[in-house]
Amino acid sequence: MARIKYFAAALVVIACAGNVPANNANAADTAEKTAPAAPTKDALVTLEKSAYEAWKSKDAKFWDTFLWDKFVGYGSSGKLDKASATKEYTGADCEIKSYALSDEQMKPLGTHAALITYKATVDGTCGGQKVPAKSWVATVYVRDGDQWKGAFHAQDAIIDPKAAVAKPADEKEAPKKDEAKPSAPDASTDAMLAVEKAVWEAWRAHDGKKIEELTARDISFINIFGTYFATKADALKDWTGPGCDVKSVSVTHAVGTMLSPTVGILTFNGAADGTCSGQTLKSVIWGTSIYVKDGNAWKWAFGINVPSRPEGG
C-alpha cells in the first residue's frame, strides 16, 4: 500500500460533557468543572487547517508547539508519539496540491479536551504514491496551559468494503519490532482495557444489550473501511447485524493515555478470526478507543480501527 505521510486521520466521536457525572466530588473533578469552556468548533477547524498548511508547506517547526508532549496517533507504519509524528507530518517527500475539510463536528470531552471529526479530501502524493483522496479524520485536542494542542490524530481512507482486496487467509501481520510495548500497570489503563475486551467480545457475539451497557450515551465509530457511524443507534445496528461472522477476538499491546481524570485514550492491537463484509479477518488492526468516566465506571465513547500496513508500505 502507498505510504501515507500526512496529518489527516481516522474518525472518532466522543461522549459530550454530559457523560462526566456531576457527583464526582474529588478535587480533580472540581477543577475540571470550574475550568474555562471548551473551544468552539470553528476554533478547532481553524487549528486543523493550520496543521494541513504546515504539512503542505513542509513546516517542521510548526509541530513542536502544535502537538502535545504526550501525543499519540497512528501513521504510515504504526503508532506515533510526538517525535515520530513530527517527522511524518512534516511531509518531506510529499507534494500536496490541495485539501478540503467538510462535515466537521465537535464534541467536548469534559472541559480539558475536545474531539473534532471531519471528512478530508486531498490531492497529492507522498513518496511518489497518491494519498487517499477521501478519508474520515479525527483529532483530539487537550488544554495545555492557555493553549489547545493536538493529543491524538488518525484517519481511515474511505473505501468500498466489497471492492477491498482480501488478504490471503494465512497472512497475519505481527506487531512491528519498534511498536510501543504495554505500559507499566496502571489502574485506569487496566480498567479501560477490561471494558475494551468486553466490547470486542460482545461485538463477536452480536450482543447489543451488553454493548449498550458498556458504552456511553453518545458514541460514534469509524471502521477499517472508512465508514463513519455517527450515532449510537447506527453503531449498534452495524455491530449486531449479520455483516460479520467472528469466531474469536483478541486485544493486545494496550497503552493508556489520560487526558484528564475522567477521559482516557486506549491504543491497542486488535485481531479477529472470521469474516466481515465477505473479507477474511486475518491481519492486525491498529485500534484506538476513547473512554469517559461515568460514576466509578469507564464507558466506551468512540473508536477508530485503522488497517495495519506492511512496514514501508
Order of helices and strands: HHHEEHEEEEEHHEEHEEEEE
* CATH-level-2 architecture of the domain at 17-157: Roll
Q: What is the molecular shape?
A: globular
Helix count equals 7
- Please tally the β strands and state the result: 14
Sheet bearing the most strands, described? 7 strands, mixed
Overview of this structure, please?
The structure is a single chain. Helices cover 23% and strands 42% of the residues. The chain is an alpha+beta fold. Strands 1, 2, 3, 4, 5, 6 and 7 form a 7-stranded mixed β-sheet that branches. Strands 8, 9, 10, 11, 12, 13 and 14 form a 7-stranded mixed β-sheet that branches. A hairpin with a 2-residue loop joins strand 13 (285-294) and strand 14 (297-307). Helix 5 (187-204) packs antiparallel against helix 6. It is globular and about 45 Å long. Residues 1-25, 27-32 and 165-183 have low confidence and may be disordered.
Task: Tell me briefly what this model is.
By secondary structure, the chain is α+β, with helices and mostly antiparallel strands. It contains 7 helices and 14 strands. The protein is globular.
Layout: helices, strands, pairs:
Layout lengths: L26 H8 L6 H17 L4 H5 E9 L2 E3 L1 H9 L3 E16 L3 E14 L2 E2 L3 E11 L2 E11 L29 H18 L3 H7 E8 L5 E2 L2 H9 L3 E17 L2 E14 L2 E3 L3 E10 L2 E11 L6
Parallel strand pairs: 1-7, 8-14
Antiparallel strand pairs: 1-2, 3-4, 4-5, 4-6, 6-7, 8-9, 10-11, 11-12, 11-13, 13-14
Helix pairs in contact: 5-6
What are the defining features of this structure?
single chain; 313 residues; Nuclear Transport Factor 2, Chain: A; 7-stranded mixed sheet; 14 strands; 23% helix; disordered N terminus
